[in-house]
TrEMBL record:
It comes from Phytopseudomonas seleniipraecipitans. This is 3'-5' exonuclease. Pfam families: RNase_T. SUPFAM superfamilies: Ribonuclease H-like. Coiled coil: none annotated.
Length: 235
């Protein structure tokens, strides 16, 4: 199945080579019953110019791969995107990306294509995935006229689902890394945050298997029930 079946049809002018690469991207795989230890997953973290999902831009992409039940340190992705119109804002105090780094970054189309080729047909994991999903989707649509259809799993949802005894409500990445005693060398750097999210995900997958959950399809079903319970009014 070719990605042409899931591209948007709006006319966008791309260089011929970028269009060829875009059209050769594989269609995403739906969550199935593949055991978690055999599932390839890409753990993503984005650094952005701010938190406005309609106006702010993706500045940096970091990703690591979980495959064969382990983090594959030989398979990592890190890229800073060039932005002509980038302006220094309060966000630079968080992610530390100086204007010089943005000016020296990779052309957005090239950066996004390289990431999508790295991603392949794999599902995505992120912490507070909704933000990363929307920001990546808009960047792909605006830059490549490509619709993002890869399934996203939110580690911020998986953690309380699988570890209710932790009693961490609306916890951030720092809350869960402290709970599990993970050593964090650096924060608010795309690749570093992706790596610690991947470490947390492996712990959660181990907990999932102990609860007889051993595939993304089963996780998806459990998450759907968990969300319904969270939304149900208290008696």
């Amino acid at each position: 199945m070719n990605a042409l079946t899931w591209l948007t049809r709006r006319h966008t002018t791309l260089p011929a080579e970028q269009q060829r690469r875009r059209d050769a991207l594989p269609a995403p795989a739906a969550p199935d019953e593949t055991p978690l230890a055999q599932q390839r997953l890409v753990v993503l973290d984005l650094e952005t110019s701010g938190l406005d999902m309609r106006r702010d831009q993706v500045l940096s992409i970091g990703a690591v791969v979980i495959d064969n039940g382990a983090i594959q340190l030989g398979q990592q992705f890190e890229c800073t995107l060039h932005r002509d119109d980038h302006r220094v804002s309060a966000s630079v105090l968080i992610h530390g990306l100086a204007p010089s780094a943005i000016a020296a970054g990779i052309e957005p189309g090239e950066a996004l294509l390289a990431f999508m080729e790295f991603l392949g047909d794999s599902p995505l994991l992120a912490f507070h995935a909704g933000f990363d999903q929307r920001m990546l989707a808009r960047a792909l649509k605006d830059t490549l006229n490509l619709r993002l259809r890869h399934p996203f799993f939110d580690v911020a949802e998986l953690a309380p689902l699988l570890c209710p005894q932790a009693d961490i409500r609306n916890g951030g990445l720092d809350d869960w890394t402290r709970h599990f005693g993970l050593q964090v060398q650096q924060r608010h750097h795309a690749s570093a945050d992706a790596l610690v999210t991947a470490e947390l995900a492996l712990i959660l997958f181990s907990r999932a298997r102990k609860q007889q959950i051993d595939s993304l399809k089963e996780l998806e079903q459990r998450l759907a029930g968990w969300r319904r319970r969270q939304q149900a009014p208290s008696l």
